[in-house]
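Dear support,

Our group has been running a series of protein-ligand predictions, and this particular one with pyridoxal-5'-phosphate is the one our PI (initials K.S.) wants archived with full inputs and outputs. We had some confusion internally about which version of the output was final, so please treat the block below as the authoritative record. The input we submitted was:
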Amino acid sequence: MINFTDIHDRKQTRSVKWDILQTVFQSEDVLPMWVADMDFQTPQPVIDALVERSKHGIFGYTILDNDVKGEISGWLERHHGWSIDTDWLSFSPGVIASLHMVIQAFTNPGDKVLIQTPVYTPFYSVITKHDREVVKNKLVYNGDSYQINFDDFEEKLKSGVKAFILCSPHNPVGRVWSKEELKKLADLCMSYNVLIVSDEIHGDLTFPGIEHFPVAALSEEISHETITFMSPSKTFNLAGLQASYIVTSDKEKRKILNNQLESQGHHMLNTMGNLALEISYKHGDEWLTELRKVLHEHRNYVVDMFEQHTSKLKVVQTEGTYLLWIDCSKLGLDDKSLKEFMTKKAKVGLNAGVEYGKEGSQFMRMNIACPKATLVEGVKRIIDAVHTT
Ligand SMILES: Cc1ncc(COP(=O)(O)O)c(C=O)c1O
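Confirmed final output from the archive:
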């Protein structure tokens, strides 16, 4: 049975989201709505398969066979209209690990790497940890939603950028880039010989009626200049099982990538992650349809509540992900005071917008992938706090 309303106690489960509140928020007394995992159980067939596999009791080295690869190609075809050859697949424990490897394998120290800010925090360290230079194409906020400044994007490419890390859909601003936007970005990258490194981990999590387009699916030429990162981890709440995959259609690039993976000791997934990947893709369609409806309802609920009860908070227009980007500028607080306001006064644990770059100043990021009752409580706490300011 699909159930997105039951509350599961996640405390004392070594949960990053729930078990390190004191360290992150200097208080145990906050409702955690931050790090990007969900408070929902993964689909029942995945739970059953993991339980069965556990009972076997032997957890030796495991293989990534054609059944797993076939489920991935089937998933990409069904959900994103993308036909891939299973030879294009490589595997890694996570998208962040893969990004580190790609930056090391395809760029040199001192090279420029382009990102669109504000953006998922590890994008910065993926570049700087390897002594590459961060170049920013700032997304443009028009008071309602975010757009791409293509002129600036081209200027930055012209300045000698080697690779562009695309976040599609975008965390934290929640944009699901349209086909036209992606084509324009990709064509510019083709013109300036820039590798597209496409993080599509949120690609399955669009609101009903909104389609995610894998950038590599736009044309064969684009596909050959793109390395795509995907995973069932956000989609089916499997982040702790550490299973992700990389799609590279260009043979030469795949060879370089696989060599990098091998040189860092990555040659398989863990037994449980491997199985969860296969089973979630095999049996997860209906569950995902329901999840997308629930997330859309939750987004609308927060938008409506803020609209009805306060003029000081605005949810930026989003088309996907379960992360809401909230414009808090009308509260008139600096970033430190804003975080304190949320943590100490409202008693909710959100991510501060500045974590995603200074362009995120005066925003907060809220995770709405929780049972409705939790969401209602979190929103109430925030509205009450605003009213007593
Ligand atoms: C855009 C983006 N990429 C990557 C990740 C993390 O991926 P992984 O856990 O596979 O390293 C996240 C998690 O929030 C994310 O939002």
